[in-house]
Amino acid sequence: MSAIAIGLHIGQEETVITLMGADAAKRVLVLQLGSQRIAQHYFHHVPPTPDEMENAIMVVEDEISRIRHDIPAGSQLFSNDPLLLNIALLAGVTPSKSPELSLAATELTFDRLARVINGRPAHVEGLPEERDFAATLLILREFMHHLAFDKIVMVS
To answer: pTM for the whole thing?
Structure first.
C-alpha cells in the first residue's frame, strides 16, 4: 500500500484536511479550528497569556484527537497554505520549490512563541505579534505532534 497524501489548510474558521489515495480518491475532513476562531475565542491579549494558550491547546488537542483514527500511518503531510509557508520561513526553512518544515523546527518555533507569551518582545524572537499567527502555529504544532507527522512539505 502506498502512502496517503494529506493536504492541510488552516483557514480562518476551520481546518480542512484532504486525504488523497494512490487511486486518486479523496476524502475531506473538517476540524472546527481556524486561526481567527481560536484567536477570537481564546486569545484576549496580544500576545496571549500563558493561561489563554493552555486553554486553547486543550481545545485544539481535543478536536484533533477526534480524527486521529482517520489518518493512516505512514501518510505524508502537504500544504499550499501561505500562512504555513510563512511559518516555515520564520522557522528558518530555506526557500525552495518544495520546502519542508520538520516537526522539530515547528516545536522550536513554538518555543520561541512561548518565550514571547512569557514576556519576551516578539521582535527579539523574529515573530509576528498577531493573535492569528499564534493560533495558526498552535494548530499546526498540535496537528503534527498528535498525528505523528515528522514534517510538512510546502507545495505550490
So the answer is: 0.95
DSSP 62-93: HHHHTTGGGS-TT-EEEE--HHHHHHHHHTTP
Q: Which residues contact 80 (CB under 8 A, 6 or more apart)?
A: 7, 9, 154, 155, 156
CATH number of the domain bearing residue 67: 3.30.420.150
3-state secondary structure of 57: helix
Helix (H) / strand (E) element for 156: namely none
Average per-residue pLDDT for the chain: 95
99's grid cell: 520546502
Distances (CA, A) of 87 to 48, 102, 131: 18, 11, 14
Give the chain's domain count: 1
Query: Can you read off the three cell numbers belonging to residue 140?
Result: 499546526
- Rounded distance, CA 29 to CA 139, Å? 15
How many angstroms from the chain centroid is the CA of residue 23?
27
